[in-house]
Amino acid sequence: MSDPILPPYTGLALFSYGFRPLFLLAGAFAALVVPLWMGVWSGNVVLDGPFSTLDWHIHEMLFGYTSAVIAGFLFTAIPNWTGRMPTRGWPLMGLTALWLAGRLAVAGLIALGPVGVMVVDSAFMVAIGAMVTTQIVAGRNWSNLKIVVPVLLYLAANITFHLEAMAAGQADLGRRLGFAMVALLILLIGGRIIPSFTRNWLAKRGPGALPEPFGWFDAGSLGLSAVVLISWVIWPQTVIVGGCLMLTGALQLSRLVRWRGWRVWSEPLLGMLHLAFAFVSVGLFAIGLTSVGILPAATGLHLLGIGGVGGMTLAVMMRASLGHTGRATKAGVAVSLAFGAVALAALVRVLVPATIGVWIAAAFWTFGFALFLWHFAPILAQPNPARRKPTTAPPSTAPSTE
Q1: FRET label pair with 220: which of 7, 92, 118, 275, CA 20 to 30 Å apart?
Q2: Residues 278-283: what's their mean pLDDT?
Q3: Looking at residue 1, what is its pLDDT?
């Protein structure tokens, strides 16, 4: 089914494509929410939302920041999958307003009861799920309809978080379910884009080993990861589940090795994706060590949350923002420093003793996302640069936007 003929978009460039406002909001929120959390954690800031202070912190990283990045990625990928026009203009403005309303409600800045907060907070991902499904079905892109399943499970995890907090005062099960769903989304989407981008880059640079194609090993390890993570949600402190989590982490590292990441370190934007996936794998392994009583819970969760989720989402935002605004997907100093700061935040948080480590990790995280904002806010808010007129230069000299 073809898209209807639409007039040229003449509105604000910021709302011409879904990734623009959503990545900008995600970056700004990430840069602001961690300093705010440090104020809450130190007792200098009080929030009046429906969650405990720790639940607010976890929820806003898993379902606030991350939901904006997931939506921005989907609104970037789906037009490529279906050939249909991207969501833009007023519908996109409405979506960004929904996301902002959710953040204000969860922080207690909109006067709603717990049920009202849940409804407002969930409305964003409900709308995303409906729009994604509509676009894929309308484009008859049936092979990618499976992406709707983890999106709906992610929405269900958010609702579970709210319901458990209302019923028990804290979202113990909801926390784990949120981490599990985000980890699965990264294993699924990262396992699709990382070997694809790596293969494309390596194929242009002569002979050598290329990433292994998706096969039974990848499918089996993904299926096992899903079963093990759901088991961890239900039975978090059992030796069997802990051992299976360690196996899952090792299998995901094996997938990563099959993608030949050591050959792309001269291209930092690709190297970042490989490193972030490694953080996810090591984080899962460390959570397994927690389940058998060897490591504290914070170790694996912060390796997964800061290095894996934070690193992967930042790398995807930077790459997509460059490539989909007509710029070369090359990492300059600012881009490399931004990712490096977030990776350091993960390492410092788990290696440096308690209080000082928390403050230093928060500073690295905030610096990384502030640098992202400084570099990418103009790129996201302004129109694409005008295309250069053709010259007599060979086509191979044009920069790749992949």
Answers
A1: 275
A2: 98
A3: 41
* 162 in the same domain as 88: yes
- How many degrees, rounded to 5, is the angle at CA 172 between CA 166 and CA 174? 75
Q: pLDDT tens for residues 353-392?
A: 889 999 999 999 999 999 999 999 999 999 888 655 444 4
Measured between alpha carbons, how far is 54 from 128 in angstroms, rounded to an integer? 27
Q: How many domains does the chain fold into?
A: 2
Average per-residue pLDDT for the chain: 90
Based on the fold, state whether residues 19 and 100 are members of the same structural domain: yes
- Rounded CA gap, 92 and 90, in Å? 5
Examine the domain organization and report whether 235 and 367 are in the same domain: yes
Whole domain around residue 101: which residue ranges?
A: 11-170
Three-class SS string for 239-301? Answer: HHHHHHHHHHHHHHHHHHHHCCHHHCCCCHHHHHHHHHHHHHHHHHHHHHHHHCCCCCHHHHH
Its pTM surpasses 0.90: yes
Same domain, 164 and 224: no
